[in-house]
Request: fold
Amino acid sequence: MVVFAGQGDARRSMSLLWRADRPEQQGRRPGPGPRPGLSVDAIVNAAIAVADEDGMAALSMRAVGERLGRTAMALYTYVPSKGELLDLMYDAVHAELPTEYDDTGDWRAGLTDWARDGLEFHLRHPWVLQVSQARPVLGPHEYAGLDTLVRLLNATGLEAHSLRRLVGTLSHFVRGCAGTVAEARQAATVTGESDEEWWFARSALLGEVAPDFAERYPSLVAMETGSTPRPPDPGEGTVPYLEREARETFDAGLGVLLDGIEAAVRRAGTPRT
Reply:
């Protein structure tokens, strides 16, 4: 399920995002319908709670109203439609992302912390991954996150064009890995079958349905044969197998990306801070 932001009224949505046209900001009393105490922030927080708990598919003005003990109609004085609400939700949760990192030392350490914080953020709010990046929300907290990443990359000394592409590469990498981990967490619940059960049932059948598997896919078999699975760390508890694999892939991939950035820094002749 992919959801596109920016489907509400452009002027109203941008005004709400930047707090330029909120009823509570301008001291206006809402109409006779809503009871006192309702606000844009209360509606947005309730909507985030609905999406966090039940997923994007459960999000509706009615569901948000019910969570607040109001009717859907009571919300429209504050938020015109679900389109504007989605924009506000998306930007609001991005306020959780840290904006302060130590950028006086090793830029590689700063980017590593940024990427790990981004991974955990998306896992707290997996519905954010369903909001397409094709059309950004253009809210203040989304911009603050981008500004933070650019500031960390500035320490590499690379020129602006390269930094722009690296922002996209790193952002897509973190979102992609977070999506895999989020799906790994959902798989057992949705299918009623653990990772181990699923893999055992199907891998055991490969020898039967494809007896020439090793001859057909020699490179893949050689890689798997030469790779020793890492035993679970006691601190990981009951982390599903697929999630452990996805997190290891995240660590390995991030290392390769940072190695690539470091190589670009050396080629450009810019100092490594």
About this structure: Confidence is low (pLDDT under 50) at residues 26-30. The radius of gyration is 23 Å.
